[in-house]
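chain below, 152 aa
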Amino acid sequence: MIPTPTIPTFRLPGLVASIGGRLPQWPNSLSLAAAMNVAKLLKLLPEDSLSQLEDRRFRVSVLDTGAVADIVCTAGTFRPLLSADVVPDLSFSANLSAYLQLLSRQEDPDTLFFNRQLQIEGDTELGLVVKNMLDAIDWSRLPLPPFLRRSD
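prediction:
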C-alpha cells in the first residue's frame, strides 16, 4: 500500500489572497452549495442534523486565497447567497492547508480550532451542530483523489 502523504501546514503568499479577494465570489458560493447538496444526496450528512440548519446562513472563508462562500439551507436544500451584504449565522475561516487537512481527516475540527488554525464565529450552538456533523461524516464513502485519502 502506498503511504498517504501528510499535508503540511502552509500559507499561500499574500499576493494570492489579494488577487483572489478581488475576484467575483459568487462562483465559490455556487460551488459550495452544490457540494453540500451532493453530500446530502450521497447521505454523507446526518439527516437528524440537517433540520437544525434550516434557514441558517453560513460563510466559509479561505484566508490565504481570498475566497469566500456564503450559503443558506432552505427547505432541506443548500442554496448560494449571492448578496454582498450577507450576515452569516456561522462562519468558518482558515487557510487552505487547514481545510485540506480536515477533508483528508489528517486533523479534526477540534484540533484545528484549538491550534488556532480554524476560526469559528457566530452561533455557538449551531457551531456545535456543524462540528458534530463533520465528525459524523464517513469520508471513506466519498470518492476522494488518492492524495487526500488516509489509510488509518
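The chain has one domain: 14-148. The chain has a mean pLDDT of 89.
thats it, cya
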